[in-house]
Task: inverse folding
C-alpha cells in the first residue's frame, strides 16, 4: 500500500517517506515561487493550477500562501483568500463556492497521536523512526466567510452560509446559516435579515 493511500484510509502514515516528500516538495517550491512574485504578475494564478487538486475559474490568493500537498485540496468557484493562508492538506480539503478566507487562516487536516510512544511507533529496518501522523478531511460549504486568525481542525464540516468569527478554533461541525466563534468555536445564533447591511449601499 502506498503511503498516500494510508492517508486517505485514515491510517497512521510516515510523512517523511520519499513518495510524500516529492509531492510536498513540488508544491512548496511552487508556493515559494508564487510568494516571490508581484501581486499584479499575471503568472500567479496559473501557478496555483500547477499544484491544486481542483479550483474554479475565478479565484484570488493575496499571498503569501503555504500548501502542504496542494493536490489534496479542492476549491469551488469565486474563492478569495487574504494574507498568510496556510493549508495543511494531508487529509483532503473540500471548499465550496463563494468562500472568503481572512488573513492568517489555517486549515489543518493533519494530526499526531496523543500518546507519546505512538508518535514514534513507525520504525524501519534501516533505523529510521517516523513521527507518525494521521489525517481527517475538512469540508467547507458554499457562501462561507472565515474571518482572520481562525484555525479549522481536521474532521470538521462547516455548513453553507456560515460566518466563523475572528480568532476561532473550529474543532466541531458548524451547521448551515450560523455565525460561530470562540475557542473552541461554537454556533452562537442563526444569521437573519436583521443582520443586513444593504442600507450601507
Result:
Amino acid at each position: 500500500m502506498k503511503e498516500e493511500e494510508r492517508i486517505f484510509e485514515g491510517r497512521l502514515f510516515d510523512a517523511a517517506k520519499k513518495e510524500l516528500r516529492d509531492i510536498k516538495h513540488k508544491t512548496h517550491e511552487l508556493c515559494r515561487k508564487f510568494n516571490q512574485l508581484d501581486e499584479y504578475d499575471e503568472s500567479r494564478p496559473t501557478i496555483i493550477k500547477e499544484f491544486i487538486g481542483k479550483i474554479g475559474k475565478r479565484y484570488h490568493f493575496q499571498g503569501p500562501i503555504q500548501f502542504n500537498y496542494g493536490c489534496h485540496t479542492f476549491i469551488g468557484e469565486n474563492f478569495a483568500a487574504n494574507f498568510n493562508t496556510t493549508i495543511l492538506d494531508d487529509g483532503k480539503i473540500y471548499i465550496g463556492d463563494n468562500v472568503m478566507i481572512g488573513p492568517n487562516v489555517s486549515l489543518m487536516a493533519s494530526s499526531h497521536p496523543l500518546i507519546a510512544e505512538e508518535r514514534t511507533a513507525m520504525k524501519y529496518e534501516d533505523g529510521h523512526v517516523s513521527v507518525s501522523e494521521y489525517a481527517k478531511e475538512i469540508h467547507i460549504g458554499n457562501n462561507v466567510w472565515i474571518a482572520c486568525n481562525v484555525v479549522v481542525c481536521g474532521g470538521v464540516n462547516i455548513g453553507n452560509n456560515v460566518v466563523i468569527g475572528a480568532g476561532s478554533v473550529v474543532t466541531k461541525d458548524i451547521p448551515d446559516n450560523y455565525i460561530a466563534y470562540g475557542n473552541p468555536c461554537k454556533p452562537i445564533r442563526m444569521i437573519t435579515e436583521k443582520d443586513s447591511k444593504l442600507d450601507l449601499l
User: Anything to note?
Assistant: The longest helix spans residues 18-36.
